[in-house]
Amino acid sequence: MKMVENAAGRMVPDEINGGEAIPFKGVGKHRPGGRKYAPPIPTCIDYPDDNNKVVSSLTEALERCGLQDGMTISTHHHLRDGDLISNKIFDIASKKGIKDLVWLPSASFPCNDPVIEYLENGTINRIEGSMNGPLGMFVSEGRMKGMAVLRSHGGRVQAIQDGEVKIDIAVLAAPAADAFGNAKGTGGPSATGVLGYAKADYLYADRVIIVTDNLVDLPCFPMEIEGNYVDFVVVVDKIGIPEKIVSGTTQITKSPDRLLIAELTASFLEKSGLLYNGATMQAGAGGTSLAIAVFVHEMLRKKGWKLSFGFGGSTKYMVKMLEEGQMGYILDAQAFDLDAVKSVEQNPNHIPYSVFNAYNYHSKGNLTAMMDIMILGATEIDTGFNGNVVTHSDGLLLHGIGGWQNCLHARNVIIPVPLFRDRIPVIVDRVTTLCGPGELIDVIITERGIAINPRRQDLIDSVMGKGLPLVTIGELKEIAEKMCGKPEKAVVDDRVVAAIKWVDGTVIDAVRKVKT
Amino acid sequence: MKMVENAAGRMVPDEINGGEAIPFKGVGKHRPGGRKYAPPIPTCIDYPDDNNKVVSSLTEALERCGLQDGMTISTHHHLRDGDLISNKIFDIASKKGIKDLVWLPSASFPCNDPVIEYLENGTINRIEGSMNGPLGMFVSEGRMKGMAVLRSHGGRVQAIQDGEVKIDIAVLAAPAADAFGNAKGTGGPSATGVLGYAKADYLYADRVIIVTDNLVDLPCFPMEIEGNYVDFVVVVDKIGIPEKIVSGTTQITKSPDRLLIAELTASFLEKSGLLYNGATMQAGAGGTSLAIAVFVHEMLRKKGWKLSFGFGGSTKYMVKMLEEGQMGYILDAQAFDLDAVKSVEQNPNHIPYSVFNAYNYHSKGNLTAMMDIMILGATEIDTGFNGNVVTHSDGLLLHGIGGWQNCLHARNVIIPVPLFRDRIPVIVDRVTTLCGPGELIDVIITERGIAINPRRQDLIDSVMGKGLPLVTIGELKEIAEKMCGKPEKAVVDDRVVAAIKWVDGTVIDAVRKVKT
What we know:
homodimer; 516 residues; globular
């Protein structure tokens, strides 16, 4: 493995966990070759005549799927911090003395911290997916055997589709399933609303196990997972802890600074003309985003306008827009709170949506490119408008990418951020880790002013002279540094502990081991 | 190419149109190897930034898809006899001097007879799909250049999935579509209800063209075809002739003999216990099947029972059961009449259903195996309970297989047929063309008695002594022959004009050129 400089000027490995890695070539510059991944052809001969695929336990299902050293096991993150299944897989594997598994979750949560034990004892070689908190620390400290690979939600789908990762066994928890394996996200004690992040897994994995605490009569409708792709069904007492699956408490920020940022953002949307009758919008579930949603809702109501659709992760604030007539549809890959879960179940205009359609860059176009307004966050933004969402300026890997990179392809990408957090500037000279190239980020909105990317003269023109506090990104950085001082550079050594993939599978940056 | 004897004792070619062909090995005996077909990896780079894929004409779309000699072009049959698009493709190709195309429709109809011109002038080499009436005659007379390949609906999906046929361009007519290519079967002047038979095509084709007469705003919901698989969208005045898409006149038989058969069938279902509260059933849209549906509905109502679900092709008689509470769901791949089309659009329990899930044998189980009661037709049944649905006893190829072979995998397969048609016996010594092995066919119900397959002693026991006119299949044959005489053997020569595939891709029989 050697380090090479990619098109963004970042040094990245040319090899990841023994496989070839392609350095980032620039936005829209890497043209994939070859064909999609092709799973083995199954036959009905191998499945029970009555199509009852229920087996006695997850252990039995894993054994019958041929669990062995080095396999890649995938899971989805719809149970979020209430997930009771993922850790159990590695529990079983560890007891059986299995080594060097690769875990490919669509995201991980604090409840998954116990897998550190299995990373330490060799059951798991590495995680390819988001790592927050203690798991991120574990990686940052160089303690994970293999190299972590971080992908966006769309990048995960791209990698699975393209065969960049090959899933041996997908273990998919389902709030409702029938004995054939048809499954959905609504219903039962552990409802997640939708199961959008499980689609790539069940379509492309060699073997698929459904784990449910709510076995229903055939047919389980609407089927988000189709039973004809499923090998085994396992029934357990509980797949999740309901109050941790949906917090029920997605809260609007109470910080005066964040509220100011939200107000400025709403004002920017109005004055720039980006908000119009029929626009499309995606925000998120952070406190500032929720406040923006509320301000936007109010504006729409006053003007008698309606958003054509909003793309989820859905929240009660989106549901309110839908129900009160200010949003035509919610297209949804993930429901963040209880109101959203209920809405998916009851409102025909709240529709489970495919991640392939929304986010996959190796696709014949995707939904994100059609979104007018995209509100995102970041841990750091630099003066080239480049964004970081995975590390802090101390170099610690503490967040996943989520759909962030995918969302950068929207028509107008707006990042409302505070100028600093815990007295550490957010606007910096050069982002610690490059996750998204500046050419895709259009507007930075802080409590001290709005910086528009000079590449978007059209946006600058649209708000010029309309009373908004326009500044340059350089000015924002200087204000931040004046107040907090220049942030210290992360102290890292040469070892690459994580690779950051771009939406096309190339390597946009690498995270190094933090010196302790 | 040489002829070999397959496991059913039929002589079949070991090569079809230059490719290797595997002779039928017996039910559940052929184990597929290898992997599913893998289409090329696309990239968003190649699609318009605004995702507007509308081009000026079908000609432009075909050109931009690189239409050339020898390509395979697929279409679906949801517009049935009102299809205005399929012929146009070959019209365009013919004008451009393109030669040797393969047409892979999910079914063909009388309105497609004009393609005979393009078969004659070399634009089309062959049709792989059903051929009725004049098209079937054309094939039977040995006038088609390539060998026809007939597959069941599930077999078509299997062949596409397994790469046995590779679709270069899928041209998919859509009653509603948006500019991104999301499409559905409901809405607009040419509503078909569902688009179930287009799924394999859009998932596996290298290039996909949507043709619509009803361009709607994004997002076109519920999307049966996902725009992220679509290359181009073409808007035309009319994709179909509404009154020929859905006849609106699916009529119950008025023939006293057929009504007697229907009554006997309903009585058999009741006395055998096959009909119970919660059973699952599939019938069809023929006059006798509709009469059976009406009788069954009446029984369910009297007993206060409800079918768990019915699998479509849906008709107004199924819709009535659904609406009046005698059927839990209609799962549907095709809507046969106007009531069915409306029902799909309005009733959340009338659900578009994947052919992969319902019928694909190279799948991890499928729905058909879970159906309790399966009512099918046949052109001939022999004393070994083997069935023919494609030729008549004169050897002429006049029908497609439809879902017939797939449906044979249901728990109880019942074939109500008249003993003879136009004074030609239906029950014969040996079927002219073998489409389904006798071991999968359980009960033959005629106006002169009910023959139960001796392999199903359980069914014989269930109705013994209950007043039903039980006979042996041999007796049925003798009655038929006594009344009509022994049918003359088809006069054919050695040339194979069509191969009949079994659900696993093997060749179960061959159709020979009829001597004229």
